[in-house]
Amino acid sequence: MTQAPILEIRGLSKAFGPVKALSDVHFELRRGEIHALCGENGAGKSTLMNMIAGVLQPDEGDMLIDGERVSIPTPAAAQRLGIALVHQEIALCQDATVAENIYMAAINSRRAPLMDFQKLYADAQKVMDLLAPIPVRIRVADLSISNQQLVEIAKALTLDCKVLMLDEPTAALTESEAQRLFSIVRGLKERGISVVYISHRMAEIFSLCDRVTVFRDGRYVATDPVAAVSPDDVVRKMVGREITQLYPDKLATKEPGRLLLSVEGLSDGHRFAEVDLQLRAGEILGIGGLIGAGRSEIAQTICGLRSMTAGNVALDGKQLRPRGYGDAVKAGLVYLSEDRKGSGVFLDLPIAANISALDLARLTGPLGLLDRKAEDRQARELTGRLGVRMAGIEAAVSTLSGGNQQKVAIAKQLSVNPKVIIMDEPTRGIDVGAKVEIHRLLRQLAESGVGVVVISSELPELIGLCDRVMVVREGRIAGELGAGELGEEAIIMLASGVQDSSIQRRTQNVA
Ligand SMILES: Nc1ncnc2c1ncn2[C@@H]1O[C@H](COP(=O)(O)OP(=O)(O)OP(=O)(O)O)[C@@H](O)[C@H]1O
Ligand SMILES: [Mg+2]
């Protein structure tokens, strides 16, 4: 007799009002396997995880643990069944310390420590150190996004679980942090723990997972052993069509357009110094570098989100000295933050209101009244262009899947018809098919005369999309690569400052 799977989902359906998030789906998790769950943005992956974790209730269908039908009415019930979920969105208590966050879950469960704080801190540090040397006594608010993600994972590791579900755990991690996570996940598998792994990165799925299940539009498509399929097969099952061209054509003309953004000698007296940058109409400029090299800080300073101590910024020939982000937006310069919660979107507000939030003045009539019709028209046009999957533009952003929230964050920046747009990790959490669409849109924007700057941690994205890539190393421009010189090794060498290709393996947290 074969052993029953540790977790089985049969004929499960879930609707949110008119939106059918899942229809009659199946899923089977075997003991000690790492099982990838794939699908486009909005396919229903997180919804299924939330049902297994007791956050949401199914409308129909069965969930079985060890062959027994169970109901999972609350997250506490899921914990008692040995199920742990690392959510796609970071949901830590920002004012509490790392240790308090790590043990928040355990405190609520049977493994509650008896408020021995010394021990709590020591234990939390032990778990944290498995992932990264983050001091557990500091406040979560003071951590970078990638470190917050690691705290979320540490939190799940303290639960004594049989089933661990990771919903896009690496979306905000560096390559080396991701590798560390993979070795931990493999170790859990050795100990017989079963893992559900959600990711849009095919390479990860193929190096880590045993089997892969694909959902499309809330329906079950297939389950295959990873060894029996190719990444192309999986993508085809996800999007229901062949993706022939991953990246749009590059800048057709060699004639440089007019100078749109010029930065000279920019310093913030702290993280970076003497940064020069020139962006011409028609081109997409990439910015690469190691995580922590100062790429985001440079972009934020150019856009008035941080203050500068020296240097000049000119936008379309005019000197720009923004006192805040609002000034930059007014001048036609926008920034898409890598942290969509921090400065991207307001979760509780409707999609339409989010998209118009940057530039209400333009939609406001002479009497100070917001022109709702114009707001709606703009929201419809932009969500259509970006292919946002939603019930309607009046729906709250919190009802969207993670990738679709990212598209709303992009739509918000585009709504002001910017002259220059600087995008920090624009396709994080975006599925393979939508990524192609977003890249095409960025190319169209460039062709229509908008200056586009893309900061990315994905080398293939920098190389495939950009006409030119500037590499930042320790707060300085280490060099620049033109179209003919773009390659992974060239970027890595500039980013690390080491003239040796053997470093490639050691410095994978690059770009
Ligand atoms: N609370 C909610 N209210 C209304 N609709 C919702 C809600 N939660 C999810 N949905 C809808 O259910 C569908 C499935 O969303 P889900 O978050 O499961 O997608 P996903 O596969 O995780 O996508 P992504 O890759 O973008 O994270 C989407 O159309 C989404 O808009
Ligand atoms: Mg999701």
Jot down its keywords.
binds adenosine-5'-triphosphate, 6-stranded mixed sheet, Rossmann fold, 511 residues, disordered C terminus, alpha/beta, binds magnesium ion, globular, ABC_carbohydrate_import_ATPase, single chain
Task: Give structural notes.
The chain contains 17 helices and 20 strands. It is α/β, with parallel strands linked by helices and 511 residues long. It has 3 domains: 7-239, Rossmann fold; 245-332 and 418-511, Rossmann fold (3-Layer(aba) Sandwich); 348-415, no CATH class. The chain has a 6-stranded mixed β-sheet, with helices on both faces. A 6-stranded mixed β-sheet has the order 16-17-18-13-19-20, sandwiched between helices. The protein has a 4-stranded antiparallel β-sheet with strand order 2-1-4-5, with helices on one face. Helix 3 packs parallel to helix 5 and helix 13 crosses helix 14. The longest helix has 16 residues, at 175-190. The termini are far apart. Bound molecules: adenosine-5'-triphosphate and magnesium ion.
